Structure formats: C-alpha cells, structure tokens
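Project outcomes to date are best conveyed with an example. Our students and postdoctoral researchers have been running inverse folding experiments weekly, and each run begins with a structure described purely in tokens. The record below, which covers 215 residues, was selected by the lab manager from last quarter's runs and is presented without edits.
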C-alpha cells in the first residue's frame, strides 16, 4: 500500500505541476484539496503529499482554513531564479557532457530532434513535456543529485513564466537553444555545453525583460 501511495503521489505531483505550469491553475487561484482531488481523480492522501512538495518548491502557498493558492509570478523572483539557474545549469550540463553514458548520449540527440520537431509543429505541450524529461535526464547524467534537486523547482517556475508570456515564435528559438545544449552533451563537449547553457539563460533574461517592457 505504501508503494501505491508513493506512486500516486508522484503521479499527482506531475499532474498538478503541469496544471500550474500550463496555467490551468493560474497564479492567484485558490482551491481546496477536496476539489482538486475530484478534478484529477487522485485520492487526498497522495495528493496532499504532492501539494506539500509543490508548496516547498514555491509554486503553492497554504491558506489556513481556505485551501491552497497558486503563487504569483514576479519579475524580481524570476530574475533571481535565473541567476541561480545560471550557476546550477552550467555545472550540471558540463558534468553531464563529461559523465553521460553512451546510451544517455544517444537519448540526448533524440531529445534534441524531438524538441525541434515539436517546436516546428507548434506543439507547446509536447515541447514542455520533452523539456521536463530532458532536464531530469541531464541531472541524472551529471551524477550530482544535490545540484539536480536544487535545480528542479527552478525549472518549473521558468516553464510557467515562459508559458504565460511566450509568443508563437518563441518556441522555435527556445528549441534551438535547448537542442544545442543536448547536442553538446551528446558529443561530450563540456565547454560547448557550458557556453550554450549561458546562452539559454541570456535568452530567458532578455525574454523576461522584453515580455514585461523592461528593456
């Protein structure tokens, strides 16, 4: 039973995180555990575990006697997240380029192709799914679980911000930048992985300032 609850909690986490990132639960929205349980068809015990984790990651905030509220997106917080991501991403991508197995390298090349295909077809949800999967795989390939755990919630915040403010053309540029990182890792080029990592963060910072008319 414990294993089943753990599995359900993991499933609940993935579903609710996707709902937050894709703005199906928009910033500022308030909901109860019972309402969300009925909506996604997962029991309240595993859902509660998932919600607690999302609250720890800053995507949700508990409101006593009222339920949970989805946190707002602020430019100050977002730029601080990117500042932190720059350091962690550079570390993880360069280490992944050095430490990935041959099988992992083949998968990174496949992810690069699939992300470009999703972007060309303007399939935003598929692109975000591939982005999340490849992020997790890069963390595993780097073999630094501490950095990978610290980085994971930051990427969820970034995907949500990008989803809210992107334009159709943004997905192609984002796919190009992500694919460049994946291919550098696949080729075992640590320097290129770090350089392309910085280029992605530069793009995200520019995107944020442009989206909010701060340039």
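After processing, the design step wrote out the following sequence:
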């Amino acid at each position: 039973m414990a294993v089943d609850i753990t599995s359900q909690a993991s499933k609940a986490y993935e579903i609710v995180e996707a709902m937050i990132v894709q703005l199906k639960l928009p910033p500022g929205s308030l909901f109860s555990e019972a309402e969300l349980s009925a909506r996604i068809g997962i029991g309240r015990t595993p859902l509660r575990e998932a919600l607690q984790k999302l609250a720890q990651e800053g995507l949700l905030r508990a409101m006593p006697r009222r339920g949970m509220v989805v946190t707002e997106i602020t430019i100050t917080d977002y730029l601080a997240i990117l500042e932190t991501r720059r350091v962690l991403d550079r570390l993880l991508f360069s280490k992944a380029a050095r430490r990935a197995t041959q099988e992992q390298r083949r998968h990174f090349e496949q992810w690069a192709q699939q992300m470009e295909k999703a972007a060309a077809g303007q399939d935003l949800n598929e692109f975000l799914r591939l982005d999340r999967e490849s992020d997790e795989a890069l963390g595993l390939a780097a073999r630094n679980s501490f950095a990978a755990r610290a980085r994971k919630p930051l990427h969820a915040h970034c995907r949500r911000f990008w989803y809210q403010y992107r334009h159709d053309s943004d997905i192609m540029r984002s796919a190009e930048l992500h694919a460049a990182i994946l291919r550098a890792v696949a080729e075992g080029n640590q320097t290129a992985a770090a350089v392309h990592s910085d280029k992605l963060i530069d793009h995200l910072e520019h995107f944020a300032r442009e989206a909010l008319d701060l340039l």
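The longest strand covers residues 60-63. The chain is about 75% helix and 5% strand. The training component of this project remains on track.
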